[in-house]
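DM from R.C. (forwarded with permission)

"hey, sorry to bug you on a friday — could you get me a structure for this? deadline for the figure draft is monday and I only need the backbone to look sensible"
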Amino acid sequence: MCFLPGWPRVISVYMKINFRKWFSFLVSVFYLVSGKAAEVTLNVGDPPPKMQVLKWVQGDPVTSFEKGKAYIVEFWATWCGPCRVSIPHLNEIHTKFKDKGLVVIGQDVWEQNHGLVAPFVKKMGDKMTYRVALDTAEEKGKMAETWMEASGQGGIPTAFVIEKSGLLAWIGHPMELKETLLEQVLNGTFDVKKAALASRERRQNEEKLGAMWRELRQQMSKEAWDQAETKLAQIEQALPEDEKDRVGMPRFQILLGRKDFAGAYKVAAQLSERTEDPMLQNELAWQIATREGIESRDLNLAEKIARRGNETTKGENAEILDTLARVLFLKGQSGPAIDFEEKAVKFAEGRRKMQFEKNLQTYRAGKVPDEQLPGRLRREFDAQIRAQQWEKAEGTLAQLEQASLPIDLSSVAAMRFEMLLDRKDYRAAYKLAASISETCRDDAAILNTLAWAIASKDGLIERDLELGEKIARRAVAAPNGEDGAIIDTLARILFMRGQKDAAIDTQAKAVDLSRGARQKEFQKTLDSYKKGILPALN
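My reply, with the result:
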């Protein structure tokens, strides 16, 4: 499940997302990462909120929910990996039930760039043939606010089923939506009052369970395995019968932590047999194959589980194909591993495609990929910079250049730039910044990183604000440069260069392009410029 994304000043290009861990484990133990839930005002049995969309990307608009028809409104986003898994499943439901009165709507929410949606839908082709709509342009989006937030749903994909009389019949993860429920909704035998009562009881129980899940999280983070097992047993006892499988993944993790590998593999095999979730299969197989500290790996079981997930996704899920390739390579089957990794490259996109291409090259060289190496090297680099161990930091950066994906090399160069600033080698730093800005003219995030460092980094004796302005203007002109945070950077540099009126005009644009807390922050900055004061940075 994907959770509502934050909006940092600079989009981090240093972070490598572990695509396997973020989905199945979070779905299985949601309360391990959730805090106190917001007040819920929308429940099963209530009338659904109205459709308030910006635009219909595909299919006929739905302005109201007609009596006699059933609806699924599923919330998703282009950046959400689990959504990509659930979309073909939802499309199968659409295809099977569309002639029986079911209308399926894919409601895009929390989207960072609305322009990505139409190309995404087009690329999905016959795997996404149902209606698709964009949320409104407000900070939260009206659909996200009145549906997701109102019902206490903090992650996507999330589906809402509306039965034929016009009431909410079900809310949950689309992969958990049973066809038997839809059949009852469509043939008029679904008992919405009974479902509403069960849903309220379940929510009350989950609120009580929330504290228990959080205690479990703390115990697992401390590797207090005895306490964690006791707490997990209490959670299992408190869970409804049809949700007891939620303890499967944390139990597997606890047993691995205790190095009870036989027990862990028994749980993994049982969980794999019971689940229909291909990404959960993927997580289990990946843990067995790659988790550090496992002295006895059951690679045969990992292969069986990975193949099960691959069959469920019809051999078209890049993450599962990559996992299966890793397991086979570890088993000494380099030929099949290379074949599966080639398929992973075929179905992957963006940086994951690049990562899998790098994995493929590594397999062909007869080596096991180390996807975590860049992250480790970055942490080493940060520690060395804090300790002012410049020579070690230089060596670490050289290793990082070799280990990084091509798309990340500009970020490595930006790290070298900031290190040169820390060393007060300003001539070399600004020469490098100018070079990076020439080669990364279309990378608004990198350009903004450079410009912001020139304008705001503590302790600089020499600030090349002319260069900073040049780079900041280039960032604004780059694709995706019409961003409040980037324009705020340019305004600050203009103010520092004594161009007060231009800074005020530019900052006003940053305010107009922003929403919520960020808009308030930029408004305070604008007010400071009008008073002739450069605001301090937090």
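R.C.: lifesaver. The beta strands are 2-3, 53-58, 70-76, 102-108, 131-135, 155-156, 158-162, 168-172.
me: no worries. The radius of gyration is 26 Å.
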